[in-house]
Amino acid sequence: MAKLWAGRTDGKTEKLADDFNSSIRFDQRMAQEDIRGSMAHATMLAVQGILPQNDCDAILAGLQTIADDLKSGALTIDETSEDIHMFIEQVLTDRIGDAGKRLHTARSRNDQVALDLRLYLKGEIETLLTYLRTLLSTLCRRAEEEKATILPGYTHLQRAQPITFGHYLMAYAMMLLRDGDRLIDTRKRMDVSPIGCCALAGTTYPTDRQYEAKLLGFSKIAPNSLDGVSDRDFCVELLSALSILMMHLSRFCEELILYSGWEFRFIELSDAYTTGSSIMPQKKNADMAELIRGKTGRVYGDLMALLTVLKGLPLAYNKDLQEDKESVFDAVDTVKACLPVLNGMLDTFTVKRENMFAAAQTGFLNATDLADYLVRKGLPFRSAYKIAGQAVALCTQKQCVLDTLPLNDYKKLSDLFEEDLYPAISLEQCVKTRISEGGTAVGSVEKQIALVRTELTDLK
Questions:
Q1: What sign has the CA pseudo-torsion 119, 124, 127, 129?
Q2: Under 8 Å CB-to-CB from 233, ≥6 apart: which residues?
Q3: What is the mean pLDDT of residues 6-16?
Q4: Are residues 66 and 204 in the same domain?
Q5: What's the pLDDT band for 18 if we cut at 50, 70, 90?
Q6: What is the chain's alpha carbon radius of gyration, rounded to the nearest angstrom?
Q7: Does residue 318 lie within any of the structural domains?
Q8: 262 lies in the same domain as 280
Q9: What is the tens place of the pLDDT at every residue in 227-267?
Q10: Which of 139, 132, 168 is CA-nearest to residue 458?
């Protein structure tokens, strides 16, 4: 395909250089956004009297046929083209003649590609938010089912205090809500139209950038043309938000892997989201969770790659900026692949309630509640803490748990201990009395579920 920029040179480059310079293999995914942007640009040019209306009509009709033919497969993208912008302009010109050559008036590929990328990523954020809402809805449903299911809560990966599985699931729901907020916040700064900045200095034509931005659904325009063509902050911000999101998914998957293993057996993942071993017939591997954990590093790498590309660039546009797309496209594709897979795992895993409860019965998870019992009897907390620690040490010697240590042994530690001790330190009571806001009591978990479901309506 002929180079539309031929003139200063003859436009003939080595095939090796063509292949190295070309971006169409990855920027072709922005074809519909490129067409949409060109239609708005032609409309604005006609309204401003820069483009004859008959040429505008021909351009709009031609672009619509290209959009339709790409969707139907009647038109395939020529991967020998330099980029998607050149390809569409060339096809348009081939179809409608000289009118197609007028489309690029008062714009540059510099502001055109920045426009396409913003349009495309705004749409991808919508998709990501849809996946997040689905995942959060699943978490709320499973948390509702398990709001009274007791398991050990951990600190330092050691059993710490009893919590409910519903409370545990809602912890991740809160993280994902924040991830959604970050995406929405990123979209605000992405919602800026760069078209009309041209190559870097604006244009001599009497364009109406505000009108064109409105046609494309942007809330504002880039107020500085140098910044408008060279800004990729919105890509960095999106990659940062996606990296944090993947970090949350990775932490969750790490625990799904642990909790589904024989050492825990708190859950069993569905066969639909596990694989087997080629040599060990007993194996049921949490490969989907492991892949999500692994792909987190990939998204981190995309963020670091783009930060590195940008760190030394002078104003305004440089060809280095072509390297933004593969990183951001890869990260978006990766997260879009991970979210529904994790949702499927959460939707279908089986909770082993008996195993969770049995694990919570060991490890002295009610030691804090033992100290609180003494505090309610009037003992200062630090004194109560020491006695509770002595009781744990005694249980370790006697190879029993706090629930089964005889009252006579308790009375040797403090005469404040009475028969009402045992119901006070039962696991059910330990959970039931965690009534502080945000705690693990059933009523608190129900409030957390209601909060997430309410905030889901704003996650769009």
A1: negative
A2: 189
A3: 66
A4: no
A5: confident
A6: 30
A7: yes
A8: yes
A9: 999 999 999 999 999 999 999 999 999 999 999 999 999 99
A10: 132
Are 431 and 164 in contact, with CB atoms under 8 Å apart?
yes
Look up residue 96 and give its two tokens.
Answer: 């409608």
pLDDT tens-digit readout, 305-349:
999 999 999 999 999 999 999 999 999 999 999 999 999 999 999
Which residues span the domain enclosing 269? 110-146+164-358
Domain presence at residue 96: yes
User: Are 370 and 403 within 8 A, CB to CB?
Assistant: no
Instruction: Say what angle helices 233-260 and 165-190 make with each other, to 10 degrees.
Output: 170
Whether 43 has a pLDDT exceeding 60, the answer reads yes
CA distance 376 to 407: 18
Does residue 225 belong to any structural domain of this protein?
Answer: yes
Q: Which of 277, 327, 383, 436 is catalytic?
A: 277
Q: Are residues 340 and 390 located together in one domain of the fold?
A: no
pLDDT at 12: 67
CA–CA dist 385, 364 (Å, integer) = 13
**Assigned token pair, 381:** 């907390």
In sequence order, what E strands does 250-296 have?
267-268
The secondary structure of 212-233 as a DSSP string is: HHHHTT-SEE-S-HHHHHH--H
Domain identity same for 118 and 100: no
Number of domains in the chain: 3
Distance CA 448, CA 269 (A): 25
Q: What are phi and psi of 67, to 5 degrees?
A: -60, -45
Length of the chain in residues, anyone? 460
- Tell me which of 72, 156, 278, 436 is the catalytic residue: 156
3-state secondary structure of 443: helix
Q: Considering only CA atoms, which of 423, 234, 240 is closest in space to residue 321?
A: 234
CATH number, position 402:
1.10.40.30
| 70 plus 217 within the same structural domain | no
Any bridge partners for residue 155, and if so which? 158
Task: State yes or no: pLDDT of 5 exceeds 60.
Answer: no
| 435 against 236, higher pLDDT | 236
Q: Is residue 213 within 8 Å of residue 43, measured between CB atoms?
A: no
Is 230 labeled as catalytic in the residue annotation? no
The pLDDT score that the predictor gives to residue 4 is 61
* Bridge partners of residue 221, in order along the sequence: 193
426 is catalytic: no
State the alpha helices, DSSP H only, in 318-424: 324-348, 353-360, 367-376, 381-398, 407-413, 421-424
